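> @MW can you paste both from yesterday?
MW: sure, first one:
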Amino acid sequence: MAEATRTSTINRSTSETDIQLSLDVDGTGQSSIDTGVPFFDHMLTLFAKHGRFDLEVKVKGDIEIDFHHTVEDTGIVLGQAFREALGEKRGLFRYGSGLFPMDETLVQVALDMSGRPFLEYRGPENVPHIGDKFNFTLVEEFLRAFSFNSLCNLHVQIQYGRDPHHMAEAVFKGLSRSLDDATTIDDRIIDIIPSTKDVL
């Protein structure tokens, strides 16, 4: 039978970041987020809320240098947490996709919990910082770290948009909603790995 709980707790410490993260895939969207980067906290909070994931994240990073290590390393640990929590991936729908609007912005997300990591990201160049601190390129860095550590095939395209906050928010919401679909258990195949290879 499928695993009774799909949870994970990971602690990762390097010379650049110290991260404590707990995930419940089958949650209700509750979260406690403290990365030291307010905009990133906002993105992870809505990621949890819209994906119905219970998520606790505590990060101490070298944000006095910049936000790169904190954002990338959190993506690494969150990806590892999903990989661990999903186990053999028995009964998964496996795929998730959709179009996600945010005011003037439209983002397309498609993903496959395939066990073969890949990121295809397409977005506008030279997007202004969000506020005066959060470099928009960190959105792609987070996605790459997450996809390669969750072993997820992830495609994200910002089809259009003007406001960098809206574009980032639509990406995180689209990722979480697509993940919720992909990680949902299909009762018809509850004890079956959804692959002709019998492994993911």
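MW: second:
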Amino acid sequence: MSQERRSSISRRTGETDIQLELGIEGTGISAISTEVPFFDHMLTLFAKHGRFDLQVKAAGDIEIDYHHTVEDTGIVLGQAFLEALGEKRGIFRYGSGHFPMDETLVRVALDVSGRPFLDYRGPAGVPHVGEKFNFTLVEEFLRAFAFNSLINLHVEIIYGRDPHHMAEAIFKGLARSLDAATQIDPRIAGDIPSTKDLL
């Protein structure tokens, strides 16, 4: 079984223009440019902690707000994982954990199941990160990613105060859980990890 699971996705709409390249068997090398500095930071650490090689070039209508750029990047990143994983032969399939970031603790659990779902639980009224990045965009990114990668994703902010720390723990937790779930299990020799023989 080839270990070169890679994909390249381009998506252009009236609101965004995104080119993305993903390598699942990577070392965490990234080149990220979305014109949204905090989002660039989140995607950079996502690549680093998931050991994914990731290139993202996005241009969007950020003069309106960041919503379209963040959501559409989630769509394209989800499509890239779906394409790169192919039939998902030999993967561990599940990944989960608790992820601390200073005063924050986040729980992430996911199943690369082929059945998309997002359950997101966090405090209401979390302030913006800095002056411009609306924290609700984190959930929008997660939903776009989960439904386009066909992943069952559960994310809970157990506790936390700093919005930067909460977002960072989520992106790191997503990365680590995806890395665990998409690794190849040598015991099943390329079989699909489902009694349905399809994911």
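> thanks! Residues 129 and 163 are 6 Å apart (CA to CA).
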